[in-house]
Amino acid sequence: GIYIPFLTAKLLSSPIPGLALKGIAIGNAYTDVAVEAPAFFEYMYTHALISIETHRAIQTNCGDQLVRACLQGNLSCSNDCARALVEGYLSSDSFAMDPYYIYGDVCQIPSSQASLLPSPKLRPMHRGVIGPCAAQYTASYLRQPEVQKVLHIPTQTQWTDCSAEVSFAYHSSPSALQKYPSILKSGMKVLIYAGDADTVVNFMGTQRWLTQEGLNLSVVSPWRGWFGPDKQLAGYTEGYTNLTFTTVKGAGHMVPAMRPLHALYMFECFVYGDAACAKFTYPVDGFEALTGAATTTDSSATSHGALWTVAGIAVGVAVVAGLAWGYRKMRGSKAEYAPLTA
């Protein structure tokens, strides 16, 4: 949300010979702190993470201006507003969920143990299989002396995904809005997309800075649903002057990790155009066989994999049913279930 607009504006003002930048795509773009901060609790309420009483308390005691002040640690934050916001954090158990993907699980593995456990082998799915412990495994990998040696960094460096020391070491720009006029005026293609399951940089805040509270862009293509190659509703899209805003249904902050098939389709349609990507061939997975989207078979391993997934489930059910019947016959029928003991 900050890096790409700043870099793009620099490339426009100081072109590099031989480099023709045609467009940019930014996902869950944290663009302006003041505009987006109030959308956090609005998102929390509309996604059943805080109660209506807490929502009303925030509306009564805060308003957008005080929410900004409190979240930024400003002295103008009132006690009543601060109490309402704290209640929102505590009652939602925010520390017990992944704020970047509210529908995902959280990792239960301590970082110190991540290197001792084998990474589970999961069958790839085009709906996305990303475990809740990916960050722990990544940190464990990047802290290995052998890896650090290859990367030419000092060994024994305790790598972390977010470092306060690094953050305090450079000047941070609170907004990138001032970079967009020159970008949009250049005529290049701009895609702003948002996974709708991210609380931190949510689509509500993005819509705020795109419209009246920020760039004040005019709608040229009204809000509508868009569909992936699997024929499923993938999200919604709206066209502004020289900019397209798109949501990805069910995705968190890292859209391609959560919805890889829909993300690939979205990117390719953005780059090549809707007419071209409609003719492309995309992978098929087991879910499409279950939904009826994949109604024919071919010689591809992917399609066979989808059918074998369904067949495997059926065989598994039959085996379990057979074992249960045999066990029941061996032990004799019971009038009621035996209680479970610890």
Give the tags:
globular; single chain; alpha/beta; five-stranded mixed β-sheet; 342 residues; 16 helices; Rossmann fold
Task: List the uncertain runs.
Answer: 297-340
Instruction: Write down how many β-strands occur, each being a DSSP E stretch of 2 or more residues.
Output: 5
CATH-derived topology of the domain at 177-291? Rossmann fold
Give the N-to-C terminal Cα separation: 52 Å
Question: What can you see in these coordinates?
Answer:
This protein is an alpha/beta fold and 342 residues long. The chain has a domain of 115 residues: Rossmann fold (3-Layer(aba) Sandwich), CATH 3.40.50. Helix content is 43%, strand content 10%. It is built from 16 helices and five strands. The protein has a five-stranded mixed sheet, with helices on both faces. A hairpin with a 2-residue loop joins strand 4 and strand 5. The longest helix is centred in the C-terminal third of the chain and has 31 residues. The protein is globular and about 60 Å long. The protein starts with a helix and ends in an 11-residue tail after the last helix. The C terminus is likely disordered.
